[in-house]
Amino acid sequence: MTVEIEKLVRRFGHNAALDGVSLALHPGEFAALLGPSGSGKTTLLRILAGLDFPDAGSVRIAGTDVAGVPARLRGVGVVFQHYALFRHMTIAENIAFGLRVRPRRLRPAAADIARRVATLLELVQIPDLAGRYPDQVSGGQRQRVALARALAIEPSLLLLDEPFGALDALVRKEVRRWVRGLHDRLGITSVLVTHDQDEAMELADRIAVMDRGRIVQFGTPRALLDDPQTAFVAGFIGEANRLRGEVRDGWLEMRDLPVPMVRVKGRDGPVEVFIRPADLLVAPSPRRHGCVEVALVRPETESARVVVRCGASLLDGVAPTQVGRILPGVLCDVTVRRLTVFGEDGAREDLHLVDAPGCVGAGASI
């Protein structure tokens, strides 16, 4: 089932929660709306669900304009962060609720509802919990109940509003992988709202990155990592050190990073520089007086994640060799392998550098 959003606008007073948003989803796609608080992602989901309405623009679900269609008739299932289960109803009654409140002419027979509930309990792998109440099951089980209730109406579109936020870390990972597997089995078009990029990257086929009421980039997780279109996306997706720089006469200088100036093609003026931790290598100084101070070391399987202090900045890097010699307080050298530069005009330049040991960092190979 397709979802087509065109030039959607939603204002609250003088503030635009959505500012000309357009988006198209393929049938059976799992998409994520990812962005910081206030970016407009929940407002967009509420409009898709029929819980809010736009000031301008259109929303078409399966080719039908749903602007005047009530939420209960849209065929959209919604799962909220805090489950929104009825505490006075059993698990089975909660799942059946959406079917029982349908208008009489659309309501299935009681026997059909019971069969549907039993099937869903099996689908979400909690068949033995039918007679319990929400307070008698775990958070992960309550989330499965909320999902079963959303699926009971056989939705053509499934909306997930921060559905894992109330779960602890281990349960959250387990449930989100289960949700993706369920999506693949059912083939329902799904939209996840989240501020957690790990969730979005693991679950979604494509991610719409939102900032201040706009979609700034929509693409696969790999495309967002490898080909960010704006400085916001470069800093928001994945891990990246963000530095201020200056281009003068075609040379890039970074005041907070002790590496030589790099030749660039962009215009002169202030720029933002992004360096992934994997591209910032930290190593013991052969001269025993490096140019950065190690602030924190976190051992990993074959290397270590290292936080180094460069002037007033703390930067994330890696120590691929001689990990035992890199300790907090030790002065080390840094090498930059790759960086991305965004000019004030939004132009991006990716620089792949040639590794060179020592405090001199890397020489450009452009």
UniProtKB/TrEMBL annotation:
Domain of life of the native organism: Bacteria
Record-linked SUPFAM superfamilies: P-loop containing nucleoside triphosphate hydrolases
MF GO annotations: ATP binding
InterPro entries, sorted: AAA+_ATPase, ABC_SmlMolc_Importer, ABC_transporter-like_ATP-bd, ABC_transporter-like_CS, P-loop_NTPase
Keyword terms, alphabetized: ATP-binding, Nucleotide-binding, Transport
TM region positions: none
Start and end residues of each ABC transporter domain: 3-237
Protein name per the record: ATP-binding cassette domain-containing protein
